Amino acid sequence: MTAMAQGLCAQGIAVVRFEFPYMAQRREGGSKRPPDKMPVLEETFSTLLLQFGPRCVAAGKSMGGRVASHLLARQACLGAISLGYPFHPPGKTDQLRSVHWLQIQRPWLILQGSRDPFGTFEEVSGYALPSSVRVQWLADGDHDFKPRKASGFSQSAHWQSAVLAMAEFVKEL
After folding, report:
1. Backbone dihedral region for residue 91 (phi beyond 0: left; psi -120 to 50: alpha; all else: beta)
2. pLDDT at 25
3. Residue 109 contacts residue 77 (beta carbons within 8 Å)
4. Gyration radius of the chain over CA positions
5. Domains in the chain: ranges and CATH
6. Is the dihedral of CA 140, 92, 96, 17 positive or negative?
């Protein structure tokens, strides 16, 4: 996320970073804690958004991107960006996290590795995503956009592609 934030700032996009309470507790306590429940995650994120006004774009990686999409469904932000959206738990494609998609009407950019275990290209291609969503695939990327060595792609190139896509998306809004 540091590389993404720095890349966006270099593109003239202001970025505010924060930690969800459970992540801060992990860092401070050293133990792995489960994520907070969605209402706590949404409240933490929306409280931050309120400080900057309704023209913000909510963005996040994995769980943070999922929470950003929930805020978008509530129209608490202008648009949302999800990096490595967790469409379902790995190996549990029947547990699709899609209930709130019907409420999403504003622009949503999803940047996803094509072999992300939380939603591969093959799986996601069959989902009924909102018409306002745009998915950009990072070839052979995993959940962190890291491709296999034999693919000929690199994680740093995927990160750069992601930054450029995010900057373009924000500037369009």
Report:
1. left
2. 84
3. no
4. 16
5. 59-89+96-173 (3.40.50.1820)
6. negative
Q: Strand order of the sheet with strand 57-61?
A: 57-61, 79-83, 108-113, 133-138
Torsion of CA 143, 73, 127, 60, to 10 degrees: -10
Q: Is 1 or 8 the better-scoring residue by pLDDT?
A: 8
Dihedral sign for Cα atoms in the order 61, 164, 57, 130: negative
Q: How far apart are CA 98 and CA 146, in angstroms?
A: 25
| Model-wide pTM > 0.90 | yes
| DSSP labels, 25-67 | HHHHH-S--PPPPHHHHHHHHHHHHHHH-TT-EEEEETHHHHH
Question: Helix 155-172 and helix 2-10: axis angle, to 10°?
Answer: 50
| Residue among 96, 101, 94, 51 nearest 80 (CA) | 101
